[in-house]
């Protein structure tokens, strides 16, 4: 089964992966970073894998100061430098919440703890994911920033099928650079790791509060940096509880939306993640 969204595993990862195992199925990640890792992840020699690395473009505000980020507009946030995406995911990329959700997703896809899932900022978006092995080798998947490549990978797996995505010309690549994400300007990554550590309902709260806050930002009701602030306040207000069923996930999603909406002074529609 090709998995085309993050939220399924972010909100119900333990439930979904248990069902996948029960049915003897396999999840094939269509998300570009996870698909990249999947392609170079040696499932038969897991003991040799030290960690995986997800890359992030850094978004349109990679070099902005905090003061500048307080004043950015929705139009600026959705202007992604490398990928063509919808408004919500473009804002998530700009805040790096998208990468935080991907860390949670990777935890369930590859059965690795948070401390073995690294994130590096790679502005060129050519290297999409890497796997580090115990002998010092690092295997990476490279490609143009085009979702048709990972989609073709999942549709053809375990074989390869043709895709019309642009081919890399290494003679025209000026440089490939990497840098650590800035935790001060992009706190969403920290919040996601904390939610993963807390477990239970925390990732669902994280996701729901973020969706409410991003919608408010796109409606110009809050500032860009208020997105992460709202998510953190909602996480603090709703301590993690165990998740035993999809009904628990749906109820938590609704509760988190209501709490985040109260913080923003708005009523939230009864939209649950599972619907």
Notes on the protein architecture:
The structure is a single chain. This protein is an alpha/beta fold. The chain has 11 helices and 6 strands. Strands 4-3-5-6 form a 4-stranded mixed sheet, with helices on one face. Strands 1-2 form a two-stranded parallel sheet. A hairpin with a 4-residue loop joins β5 (127-133) and β6. The longest helix has 19 residues, at 246-264. The relative contact order is 0.15. Residues 269-275 have low confidence and may be disordered.
What order do the strands of the largest sheet run in, or round the barrel if closed?
4-3-5-6
Give the proportion of residues in helices.
40-55%
Calculate Rg over CA atoms.
18 Å
Major beta-sheet overview = 4 strands, mixed
Categorize the overall geometry.
Answer: globular
Order of helices and strands: EHEHEHHHHEEEHHHHH
Overall pLDDT, averaged? 94
